[in-house]
Design brief:
Blueprint (H helix, E strand, L loop, with lengths): L1 H4 L3 H39 L3 E9 L3 E9 L5 E8 L6 H10 L2 E3 L4 E5 L8 E9 L4 E9 L9
Antiparallel strand pairs: 1-2, 2-5, 3-4, 3-6, 6-7
């Protein structure tokens, strides 16, 4: 430290400003890299597929409930599998889930089937596994199939 105090004031200021410049540059590079990582992740999240299942009720003189599988994302997805925690009595619902598996779904595209009242369980859980060719995703969707039974449209 004595060597530093023995320097002229101009040299002391030059050394201090050099260290300050190095510190500020290092922090700036770190912030820029962090911002790039966040921007990349935001772009990936904004453009990925989002495949979900839900119920839709339509009034056609009487109310018909549909089971819908839809891609809400901005890119297409290959659905690897859709499984329900309950086995359906009606074969067509099991076939529908099977038919949706191993299939491509475009952005905004839906697969729809009628949901029979005989199948009304309180809670159903659908596990949807899909990928976009780069990343793998999975969604667990919990649906109450009796949610609409007392609702007036």
């Amino acid at each position: 430290m004595d060597w530093f105090l023995g320097l002229k004031i101009e040299n002391q200021i030059a050394i201090i400003s050099s260290f300050a410049t190095i510190l500020i540059s290092t922090v700036s590079v770190w912030i820029a890299l962090k911002a790039m990582k966040i921007t990349k992740q935001s772009t990936l999240d904004a453009n990925r597929p989002y495949v979900v299942a839900y119920f839709e009720v339509v009034d056609v003189g009487y109310y018909v409930k549909y089971l819908v599988v839809k891609n809400y994302g901005k890119s297409g997805a290959f659905i690897n599998s859709i499984e329900c925690d309950k086995e359906f009595q009606e074969g067509y619902l099991n076939n529908f889930l099977e038919d949706c598996s191993n299939r491509f779904i475009a952005p905004g595209q839906s697969f729809i089937t009628v949901f029979d009242k005989k199948e009304e369980e309180e809670q159903l859980k659908f596990d949807i596994k899909y990928n976009d060719g780069i990343s793998k995703y999975s969604e667990s969707v919990h649906l109450n199939s009796k949610a609409f039974q007392h609702q007036i449209y």
